[in-house]
Specification:
Length: 153
């Protein structure tokens, strides 16, 4: 029986490879690590715990997914769209995302944005945590927005 890993330093976890999933240009400006997840460095079927990094001026475009999510901002400042609400989040801000709520981040600060992201499977429903993430171009800013929604993740 394989021993379950119980700890790891974040520096030991590689950035996820999302090539072919997210637009290439987007992934040059943002990175994510799955530290604890069904396919993470530490295996767990009902949670996804990791980090999200977004370069200065870059955007994690509007998207939604079935799993609820929490963010805790460690470094930086971002303009946020969560549902119909726009606000600025900075170090120490905690944000809760409801299932299927449209949300996005745009780094408006002078340094790389870093946050902890946490998803969970409500009532043990692992289909929610393993579900697809949908980019929503109708909400996206700028000329580089794709013309069709893309199912990602």
């Amino acid at each position: 029986m394989e021993k379950t890993q119980k700890y790891i330093h974040e520096d030991e976890v590689p950035y996820g490879d999302y090539s072919g999933v997210y637009p290439e240009d987007m992934m040059r400006k943002m990175r994510a690590k799955r530290i604890i997840a069904p396919n993470g460095a530490i295996k767990h079927d009902e949670i996804l715990f990791g980090t999200l990094e977004i370069d200065v001026g870059a955007e994690y475009p509007p998207h939604r997914h079935e799993a609820p999510e929490l963010y805790y901002v460690l470094v930086g400042e971002v303009e946020c769209l969560f549902g119909d609400e726009h606000f600025v989040a900075r170090e120490g801000t905690v944000i809760q995302t409801a299932p299927n709520e449209v949300h996005s981040f745009k780094n408006i600060g002078s340094q790389k944005f870093v946050a902890v992201a946490f998803w969970w499977a409500p009532n043990g429903d692992t289909e929610k945590i393993n579900g697809k993430l949908e980019l929503l171009p109708k909400y996206m800013r700028g000329a580089n927005a794709p013309t069709n929604a893309k199912t990602c993740f």
